[in-house]
Structure formats: structure tokens, C-alpha cells
């Protein structure tokens, strides 16, 4: 009976030397990049009267995401935990692990009023308005 052995490649190149060497190399790469591979990409766009920040997630529910603005620093955090129902299954290979990651961006003129966030199709969109400077110009008459 055949067994399932996952094929692992380095940079998409099929190995031409014994597979154990490539497996060892892949294992070394897995150990050196776990944090960077779990970070999620973000885009920050200046819309003139505010900012639009987009964070891209895969396989994350909105309950796993936390968004916070603290003195101009917008922090987006995700905390994903392994599901309990998966623990009793007999996996031949399981690459999903629990992880958490945080990304932040400093927006010097961000206002804490009027913030909004929506999450759809794996994309979190946060609208951050800018502080509106009120210019109190008073005309002074000269006597």
C-alpha cells in the first residue's frame, strides 16, 4: 500500500540530489522564518481627509482580529488558535499552527473620532480620519 509523502521543494525546483538533503534544507528554512511568514501585509493610503489602512488575512475570522489607535499609532493584531476538533484527527501532514502577529503604523495626525473598520473576504479596511485643525482667525479692528 502506498503512503502519502508530501513533496517539498526548495524555490520550486525539483530536487536532483537525494531528497533527504533537500528535506534538511527545508527544515532549516522553516526554523529561520516562522515569524516573518506569519506577518500579514498592510497597505496605508492617504485619502486627503483621512487614511485607509488595509490588512490582508488568510483563514482568519473577524473575532481573531484586534484594532487599536493609541496616540497616533494604529495597531492591528491577529491571534489564531488551533481548533479543538482538529486535535483528535489523524493527520498525515498538518502545517497550520496557532500564531499571533501585530503590525503597526504611526499616523501623526490621526483622529480618534470617527474611526471605522470592516472585514470582508479576508481584507480588513480601517478608515482613520485626520484631525481637523480649526483656524480661529479673529479680525481685530485698530483704534
UniProtKB/TrEMBL annotation:
Gene3D superfamilies: 2.60.40.790. Residues 33-143 form the SHSP domain. Belongs to the small heat shock protein (HSP20) family. This is Hsp20 family protein. It comes from Collinsella acetigenes. The lineage of its organism: Bacteria, Bacillati, Actinomycetota, Coriobacteriia, Coriobacteriales.
Amino acid at each position: 500500500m502506498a503512503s502519502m509523502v508530501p513533496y517539498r521543494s526548495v524555490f520550486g525546483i525539483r530536487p536532483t540530489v537525494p531528497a533527504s538533503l533537500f528535506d534538511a534544507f527545508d527544515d532549516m528554512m522553516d526554523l529561520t522564518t516562522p515569524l516573518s511568514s506569519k506577518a500579514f501585509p498592510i497597505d496605508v493610503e492617504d485619502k486627503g481627509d483621512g487614511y485607509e489602512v488595509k490588512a490582508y488575512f488568510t483563514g482568519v475570522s473577524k473575532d481573531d482580529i484586534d484594532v487599536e489607535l493609541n496616540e497616533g499609532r494604529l495597531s492591528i493584531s491577529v491571534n489564531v488558535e488551533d481548533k479543538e476538533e482538529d486535535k483528535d484527527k489523524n493527520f498525515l501532514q498538518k502545517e497550520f499552527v496557532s500564531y499571533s502577529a501585530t503590525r503597526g503604523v504611526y499616523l501623526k495626525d490621526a483622529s480618534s473620532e470617527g474611526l471605522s473598520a470592516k472585514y470582508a473576504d479576508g481584507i480588513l479596511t480601517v478608515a482613520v480620519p485626520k484631525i481637523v485643525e480649526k483656524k480661529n482667525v479673529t479680525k481685530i479692528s485698530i483704534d
